[in-house]
Design brief:
six-stranded antiparallel β-sheet; single chain
């Protein structure tokens, strides 16, 4: 471990780790999980590859994983640690600070080994405690997750759109699930078609709608 790594580890211990321990999160590397019923809250520190010898550039990733959605998507039990890339929904600190406007810019902090770390630790701690964690804590049920996604989280990635279909099905919105899945079944990707077929089987859904893609209306 380099001196810079030691410096960064100490910074994390007096800032992010302290706050998350207070809220009941458990640490694994640079990822923290907290489980409440079937919802797992996730906070992750992402270090930039472009940090130089004396500076660490980092940001925060956040999200939740719902056990029922995970089981339907992966067909297996939850792992001991949920990573940020497995979250639905997942977002970054920049999204939080910009009110999920869709125009958020990534926020990256710079920890300079030649400067006092306390001011930055206070800034990151305040952001986490007062802005980020309150958003996560609102996502305490499948209904809350669905409401959040409708309001704040554009479904950009294929996996997110499939997870949205699973969520719709679990909340009884079978038309919404059908719309989400049919877009993949009418698409060109065999891999995504196969994935949706697996998920349909796990959910006990009937065969895909055969009349063509459904509209969003």
């Amino acid at each position: 471990m380099t001196r810079k790594d030691d410096f960064f580890s100490h910074f994390i211990s007096i800032s992010v780790a302290t706050v998350l321990k207070e809220y009941g999160y458990r640490k694994n590397g640079l990822t923290w999980n907290r489980r409440m019923d079937q919802i797992i809250y996730v906070v992750n520190i992402q270090k930039s590859r472009f940090s130089d010898k004396g500076t660490v550039k980092f940001t925060l990733n956040l999200g939740v994983a719902a056990e029922d959605i995970w089981l339907a998507y992966w067909g297996m039990e939850l792992p001991k640690v949920i990573k940020e890339e497995s979250c639905f929904p997942g977002f970054r600190v920049g999204d939080v600070l910009n009110g999920f406007s869709g125009k958020a810019k990534d926020l990256w902090w710079f920890l300079d080994a030649s400067k006092a770390m306390d001011p930055l630790a206070e800034e990151v701690t305040s952001c986490l405690r007062n802005r980020c964690l309150p958003v996560l804590q609102q996502l305490d049920s499948l209904y809350a997750v669905a409401d959040f996604v409708r309001r704040s989280n554009p479904l950009m990635m294929p996996r997110d759109r499939i997870c949205w279909g699973i969520l719709c099905h679990q909340l009884g919105d079978f038309d919404g699930a059908e719309r989400a899945f049919s877009k993949f079944e009418s698409g060109k990707s065999k891999a995504w078609q196969s994935k949706v077929s697996e998920i349909r089987s796990r959910l006990g859904m009937e065969k895909p709608y055969e009349g063509g893609p459904l509209s969003d209306s």
